[in-house]
Amino acid sequence: MAIRVLFLCTGNSARSQMAEGLLRHHGGARFEVQSAGTSPRPKIHPVAIRTMAEHDIDISRQMPKDFKPFVGQPFDYVITLCDDARELCPAIPGSETIHWSFADPASVVGERAQLLAFHEVYRGLKRRIELFMTVAEKAHPAAG
Which CATH superfamily is domain 3-138 in? Predict the structure, then answer.
């Protein structure tokens, strides 16, 4: 049985979409992954798509989603990626909530600075997801 993970941030247009793509890419069938936002934007940020594509991960078909439809669903882990999402995220019974605080790379001004911010978020998410996968698979050995 796959380990169910929900990534949450505010707009669901950058950080949580990148995290969803990373875990789906590296975790394969061992993980069932979704992402959502507390105030979803209309589309994924183009620099998030570009950053992930540079690492051979395609998130261009993912869409921002509101977190409310996910509240009644069972998840093993709910991972908030910004302080606002942590404040607004309701408890989801049966899930472990984890908080990873990442600054919003979309809020960075200047094309080069923003690109660097997205790459910094990518590196941070990749490190944490690699560690998370190891821990989660030990806690849920049936998923492996």
Answer: Response regulator (3.40.50.2300)
- Catalytic residue, from 5, 33, 81, 89: name it: 89
110 catalytic, yes or no?
Answer: no
Is 9 part of the annotated catalytic residue set? yes
Active site residue 89: yes
If you ran DSSP here, which 8-state letter would residue 8 be given?
E
Residue ranges per structural domain of the chain:
3-138
Asked if 84 contacts 7 with a C-beta cutoff of 8 angstroms, the reply is no
pLDDT by position in tens, the chain (length 144): 899 999 999 899 999 999 999 999 999 999 999 999 989 999 999 999 999 999 999 999 999 999 999 988 899 999 999 877 667 666 677 889 899 999 999 999 999 999 999 999 999 999 999 999 999 999 888 765
Helices (H) and strands (E) in the chain, counts: 4, 4
